[in-house]
């Protein structure tokens, strides 16, 4: 009788599953836990002063200028540089062989924030600063597929999504078999995304769960875009058969 077994996953497949599927699933699960347990509100309440009805970091000071506006601009500059490199690749010898990878990276980095922006227009999730519990006028609502005029324009977290989009560099590093670039992209994306998340929570602009969902969306979509490079037929597990001892008839 022949028995069937799967050969071990390749490094590309292992990275795809861990970073592109398992990690975003864990982040999404944590987001659901924070929202359902009330921890989401407690985290935001920690940064809110009920007496002054203000959050620790306002939207007019240094944190807004450096962490929000400048931070967003720097991520955009990185994306534009990658876009320019991809467009110029046919005429630049060092980049010509990486043309497909560069366009994949441009798409992977831009798709997450774009989808997050679209999602913000179709749900009623409001920002903490808009809710009555934090000095606003709105009641909590979580309806989906509403007209744009009724949308809360807050879920998932847009600024955090921009930071987490840098994780696409890690997928490029894995595709190139360059561990240093993979590690740089992973820690840069997660680190910048986490800093952007903390800033916006301290400003009252988002609940932490909003930003965890943004990270999940970015990771899932980056994995989807890079799947043709990481899961090419030559990298798929090969089905092998081993022959066992023949069965005797009864």
SSE order and pairing:
Blueprint lengths: L1 E5 L4 H27 L1 H8 L1 E2 L4 E2 L6 H27 L4 H4 L2 H22 L37 H7 L3 H8 L3 H25 L4 H23 L8 E5 L7
Antiparallel strand pairs: 1-4, 2-3
Helix pairs in contact: 1-9, 3-5, 3-8, 5-6, 5-7, 5-9, 6-8, 6-9, 7-8, 7-9, 8-9
Q: What coarse outline follows from CA principal-axis ratios?
A: globular
- The number of helical runs is 9
Whole-number average pLDDT?
A: 91
Order of helices and strands: EHHEEHHHHHHHE
| Helical proportion, percent range | 55-70%
Structural class label: mainly alpha
Distance between the termini: 15 Å
Low-confidence stretches: 235-250
**Radius of gyration (Å):** 22 Å
Question: If you had to describe this structure to a student in words, what would you say it looks like?
Answer:
- With 250 residues, the protein is mostly helical.
- The protein has one domain (2-235).
- Helix content is 60%, strand content 6%.
- It has nine helices and four strands; from the N terminus they run E-H-H-E-E-H-H-H-H-H-H-H-E.
- It has helices at residues 11-37, 39-46, 62-88, 93-96, 99-120, 158-164, 168-175, 179-203, 208-230, and strands spanning 2-6, 48-49, 54-55, 239-243.
- Strands 1-4 form a two-stranded antiparallel sheet. Strands 2-3 form a two-stranded antiparallel sheet.
- Helix 3 packs across helix 5 and helix 8 packs antiparallel against helix 9 (208-230).
- The longest helix has 27 residues, at 11-37.
- It starts with a strand and ends in a 7-residue tail after the last strand.
- Mean pLDDT is 91; it is low at 235-250.
């Amino acid at each position: 009788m022949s028995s069937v077994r799967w050969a071990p996953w390749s490094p590309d497949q292992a990275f795809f599953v861990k970073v592109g599927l398992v990690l975003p699933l864990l982040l999404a699960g944590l987001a659901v836990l924070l929202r359902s347990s009330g921890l989401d509100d407690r985290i935001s309440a920690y940064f809110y002063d009920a007496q002054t009805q203000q959050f620790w970091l306002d939207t007019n000071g240094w944190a807004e200028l450096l962490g929000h506006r400048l931070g967003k601009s720097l991520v955009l500059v990185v994306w534009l540089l990658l876009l320019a490199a991809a467009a110029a690749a046919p005429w630049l010898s060092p980049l010509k062989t990486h043309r497909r990878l560069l366009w994949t990276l441009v798409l992977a980095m831009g798709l997450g924030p774009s989808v997050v922006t679209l999602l913000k227009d179709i749900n009623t999730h409001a920002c903490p600063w808009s809710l009555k519990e934090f000095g606003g006028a709105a009641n909590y609502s979580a309806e989906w597929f509403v007209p744009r005029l009724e949308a809360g324009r807050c879920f998932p977290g847009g600024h955090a999504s921009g930071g987490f989009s840098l994780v696409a560099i890690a997928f490029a590093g894995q595709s190139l078999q360059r561990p240093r670039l993979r590690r740089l992209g992973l820690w840069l994306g997660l680190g910048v995304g986490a800093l952007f998340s903390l800033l916006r929570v301290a400003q009252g602009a988002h609940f932490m769960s909003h930003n965890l969902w943004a990270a999940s969306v970015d990771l899932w979509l980056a994995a989807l875009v890079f799947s043709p490079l990481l899961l090419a037929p030559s990298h798929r597990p090969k089905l092998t058969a081993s022959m066992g001892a023949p069965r005797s008839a009864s």
